[in-house]
Amino acid sequence: MSALPVRPLSGANSPPDVGGNLRRLRNLQGHSLETLSRLSGVSRAMLGQIENGKSVPTITSLWKIAKALGMPVTALISSTDQVRSVVVPKSAVRTVSSSAGRYQQRTFERPEFPQSFKFVELKIAPGHREVLPVSTFGARATLLLTSGTIEIAVSDDPPSRLAEGTAILFQADVEHFIFNPSTIDATAFLIVSSARNGAT
What's the order of all strands across the beta sheet hosting 167-171? Predict the structure, then answer.
């Protein structure tokens, strides 16, 4: 009996290119191997071996790397080479509420289309003050107020008051909070970008 021909794996049958994904995402965020090693706790040598396909990372290592990149683990093990655009339907938008609904955050993202920034819509009720989460080291943010009035304070800086249509750029890796001093709801869009090359 003749042996069955062996077909190379391709397309959906191919194993994920973890090394290629890691290199692409690292470069997208402007991280050197040294910087990513410091952020993730995974050694530079191991990161290099993973990128070159010489080492298979453990689940723990994947989790540490993904957390440092601010992305889900699926971003490292998924094939996104053919994805050029992804629609985020309303039903897929991740919504988080706090303070009995006085603060609402909607995050627009898809695991099959990882990006080097987070895009979030914020809604703040009148008189509410919300402490925003501190991002990874070196992260920068842009907040655009689309309706209402808010005050935002970054670290020890005095609060800045924003009117509708006004934006503020700030460091996102330090404590910061927003406050709605008005009598109507305020809505803003927030973009948080990862550290750039050379950020310290």
Answer: 94-98, 103-107, 117-124, 186-193, 140-147, 167-171
Q: What is the pLDDT of residues 166-190, one digit of tens each?
A: 999 999 999 999 999 999 999 999 9
Query: DSSP E strands: which ranges in the chain?
Result: 94-98, 103-107, 117-124, 129-132, 140-147, 150-154, 160-162, 167-171, 176-179, 186-193
Same-domain check for residues 181 and 143: yes
**By C-alpha distance, which of 174, 181, 138 is closest to 157?**
174
The domain of 38 spans 11-77
Domain boundary among 77, 109, 134: 77
Backbone angles phi, psi at 165, to 5 degrees: 90, 0
Do 63 and 130 reside in the same domain of the chain? no
Tokens of 145: 């107020």
Contact at 8 Å (CB) between 172 and 155?
A: no
pLDDT, residue 6, reads 41
